[in-house]
Write a structure and sequence with these properties.
Blueprint (H helix, E strand, L loop, with lengths): L3 H22 L8 H6 L2 H21 L5 H30 L1 H9 L2 H34 L9
Length: 152
Amino acid sequence: MRNNFFFSIVCVFIIVNIIDLITAYFILPGEANLLYLLTGTYWSLIIVKIFVISLILYVYYKNVLPSRFWHFTFVYIVLISIILTGIGAYSNITAMNNPEVLEQASKMSVQEKSEGYGIFILFLYVVPYMLSAVSFKLFEHNEKTVRYENDG
């Protein structure tokens, strides 16, 4: 059974990704998205966004996950993606409203942008997920041996 929470986060995920895609179009010379930097084409961003949104919608509508861990992972990925994509969209809007920021970003080399983007993803996406996933697995393993005060 689908619930309002999943529906809400999936809707917010889609909206934030659309905003990010639209705002990215206006700052392409300063764009730091690794996919854009590697391909040099805006269409690659569109195709990947459509694919990822479709994948999230598929998981949402299928509404069957293999385990509690995958349930946790799905929620985590959608929530962290909303936050990080929101930061990206905010950054794009800032660049749109400040031509000097966009000019400075457009002067950065592809390597500088790639390194910055990689560090951003590593420390704000990968490391927190690994910590959360390990914590969840330890919780799940340990939960069988813990008694709660309010257990009936």
